[in-house]
Amino acid sequence: MNHGRFLPVGAALLAVLAACTPDRPQADLRLTGGSMLDGTGGDAVNADIAVTGDRIVFVGDASADGPPASDTLDVSGLVVTPGFIDMHSHAELGSDHGRDARAFLFQGITSVALGLDGGGIAEVAAQLAAWEEDGIGVNAFLFVGHNSVRAWVMGMEDRVPTAEELDEMRALVRQGMEEGAFGLSSGLFYLPGNYAETEEVIELNRVAAEYEGAIYDTHDRDLGAAYPPFGYLESIAEGIRIGEEVGTKVIFSHFNAQGAHNYGRAHEGAALIEAARARGVEVAGAHHSYTATQSNLRSYTIPGWAAVGGDTAMVRRFDDPDTVAVIDRQTREMLAIRGGAERLLFADQRPDLNGKTLQDVADELGMDAPATARHILREGNAAVMNLGLYDVENVRYLAQLDWMMTCTDGRDPGPTRPITHPRAFGSFTKKIRDLVLDERLVTLPHTVRSMTGLAADFLGWTDRGYLREGYAADITVLDLNAVDDMATYENPHQYSRGTVHVLVNGTFAVRDGEATMALPGRALVRGGKPFDGG
């Protein structure tokens, strides 16, 4: 079906005549007859929207006082929303296969947050400039990562930094913030971030706090499946403290409770956030609707002490029988937390691993699971999913919270990985399909707000995230009768359906359900303005 129907000839003639009126300049595009959700969480209203260049220039009843347009689309029967904001992404915008961001655009996503889990580089300006030069399909913005700066200064050392090392890390955070980073990200579950004491992260976040609107984004130390356990609630309290002590905003990445022992406990973690919000801390979270995670084999199977000093040192420990006995015992304990070796599904580019569980590979090799993990890690770390680590009931609970944003936590890794996490292809669509349309657990206005205005407000954007005159023309048009996430764990490389049109900065990235292959995205600096090369 072609949803881009043109208006009748009579209406088109009136538009042409109106265009001759000097006080009503002609717009580039007009979307007419749509059911508009503006990002505030309010009910849908019938409204027309006009776009000139990269801006929305009119919202209202175009037949009464709207501008004429050179291109008019009838979107009657469709829902028009602000473009969606992915608050935790790993979109591979620098790669040939990922630059156009189709996996994200077909979910209605027009902006993505990157440099998360502590992985953002300090050379923010160089990355922003590269995106501007090469072109990207969606808007993108960056965080400077604690893990990256710690690794640069200290490598994989498990110790407190010296005063000189801490100063060097501070300087790298400051560089990232000066060059437009939105804040500091951490991955305290990952290495080498996990080696850091809370006070170290506070000191680095103190640098970020010098910049207006700074955010502390954290993959916190223990979502419930860390080894050794730090504590699910203790980890949330630590994340809040790191922001509260220095005055930054705080967002918990892919917020949820991990492990069967934490099924049904999301409300306990949420209560800590609610209490912090009540005392004035600007703290929130983002989540997706899948029950599997994706990370790496080392993080899921090897205790942190065994990786001190890096991969070479780790492999040397693998060669010591006494040390291996301890590692293997702890690996079994780690696997038990995660539901067993049969719950770890490889999403690695190595074809002998991709699509198999750790238990499958162990059976093929005639080894037990700990020995198999060590065997694989000798050749390098491996991408792996942990099936069933999240609880559906926790997901449902979190979706109802008024401070919970939406994310994919995903990457489209291209054709080299037939099996990968479907979240890069379906997170936003799945939330609408499952929780709004099928289960009717949450309303569409609430859910759209979690994907648009709520995120824009938290980020400090003043001209994106809402359908308002003067705002950037990031616009998504959905056919609710067709909305469906197609990606599965068995066949993940499938784009979502039901996204009819997507405009990024006033340019169609998706039109009539087809990708235009345009690259209209902009690199954004803190505050939401496009990078200007400075």
Descriptive overview:
With about 525 residues, the chain is α/β, with parallel strands linked by helices. It has helices spanning about 10-20, 60-65, 100-105, 125-135, 145-155, 165-180, 200-210, 230-245, 265-280, 295-300, 310-320, 320-335, 360-365, 370-375, 390-400, 425-440, 445-450, 455-460, and strands at about 30-35, 45-50, 55-60, 70-75, 80, 85, 110-115, 140, 145, 185, 215-220, 250, 285, 295, 345, 385, 405, 475-480, 500-505, 505-510, 515. The strands form four sheets. Strands 1, 2, 3, 4, 5, 18, 19, 20 and 21 form a nine-stranded mixed sheet that branches. Strands 9-10-11-12-13-17 form a six-stranded parallel sheet, with helices on both faces. It has a three-stranded parallel sheet with strand order 6-7-8, with no helix packed on it. Helix 7 packs parallel to helix 8, helix 8 packs parallel to helix 9 (about 265-280) and helix 13 crosses helix 14 (about 370-375).
Topology:
Blueprint: H1 9-19, E1 29-36, E2 45-52, E3 55-60, H2 62-65, E4 72-74, E5 79-82, E6 84-86, H3 102-105, E7 109-114, H4 124-134, E8 139-142, E9 144-145, H5 146-154, H6 163-178, E10 183-187, H7 198-208, E11 215-219, H8 232-244, E12 249-252, H9 266-278, E13 283-287, E14 293-296, H10 297-301, H11 311-318, H12 321-337, E15 344-346, H13 358-365, H14 369-377, E16 383-386, H15 392-399, E17 404-406, H16 423-438, H17 444-451, H18 453-459, E18 475-478, E19 499-504, E20 507-511, E21 514-515
Parallel strand pairs: 1-4, 1-5, 6-7, 7-8, 9-10, 10-11, 11-12, 12-13, 13-17
Antiparallel strand pairs: 1-2, 2-3, 5-18, 14-16, 15-16, 18-19, 19-20, 20-21
Helix pairs in contact: 5-6, 6-7, 7-8, 8-9, 13-14
